[in-house]
Amino acid sequence: MKRKQREIIFKTSPSFVPVFFGIFGIAFFGWMVFLMYNGRSNMLHETETVNLKTAEVLYYIFLGIFVFFGLCSSTLFLKMKIIILTSSKLIIKYPFFFLEKTIFLGDIDKILEKDYIVKPEVKGSVYNIHEGKEAIIYLFSERKIKFNSFEIVGYKDLMRKLYLAKSRYKFLDL
Question: DSSP 3-state assignment of 92?
Answer without folding.
Answer: strand
